[in-house]
Amino acid sequence: MRAALLDAATQLIEAQTDDKVSLRACARLAGVSHAAPAHYFPTRAALISAVLAHAFDKLTEAMIAARDAAGDDPFDRLKGTGRAYVAFGLAHPALYTMMFRPTYLQVPDGEMAEAGGRCGAVLGEAVAATPRPGGLTVAAGMAMAWTTVHGFVGLVSNGLVLLDEDPMTTAERILEQQRTAFSG
C-alpha cells in the first residue's frame, strides 16, 4: 500500500501541482480508505519527503545504469551520467522541480536528504574519475557538470530556451562540448 500511495502522489505531482497532493487525494487515487495513508505517512510533509526520496533513488539508478553502459572512458561515463540526469528531468519536470526545493526537506538528515546525497555522489564520483586539465578541481568540475545538466533541464522545462531540435539531441551536443574540460 505504501508503494501505491507513493505512486498516487507522484501522479498527482506530475499531472497537477504539488499543492494538490494531500493524504486524502492520494488515498482516493490509490483506491484505499482516506485513513490508510496515516499508517505510512503521519503528515503530508512525510508523504512528500518519501515521494521525493523515491524520485532521487530513481534518478540515481538511471545515472548509474547510464554511466555503467557508457564503457570504460571516464568522460563517456560522466557524459552518460549527465545524459541520464537530463532525460529524467525532462521526463518528470514537476517532480524534478520539487526535488530541488529546500522547502520540501523535513530535516537535513531525513530520507530525502540522504537520497539526494546518494544521487549527488554518483555525479561526484564520475567527475572525480575524469582527468581535469588546467587545474580544474573535483569541486569545480562538479559545479560545472551539475550546472550544465541542472541548468539545461530548468531552462528547457520552463520554456525559457526554444530549441529547433529534440532537447536530448541538444543536451548531447552540450555535454560533448565539455570533453576538453574533462579529458587529459
TrEMBL record:
Gene3D superfamilies per record: Tetracycline Repressor, domain 2
Keyword Transit peptide: no
Domain spans labelled HTH tetR-type: 1-59
Keywords per UniProt: DNA-binding, Transcription, Transcription regulation
InterPro entries, sorted: Homeodomain-like_sf, HTH-type_TetR-like_transc_reg, HTH_TetR, MT1864/Rv1816-like_C, Tet_transcr_reg_TetR-rel_C_sf
Superkingdom: Bacteria
Keyword Transcription: yes
Xref: PANTHER family: HTH-TYPE TRANSCRIPTIONAL REGULATOR RUTR, TETR-FAMILY REGULATORY PROTEIN
Protein name: AcrR family transcriptional regulator
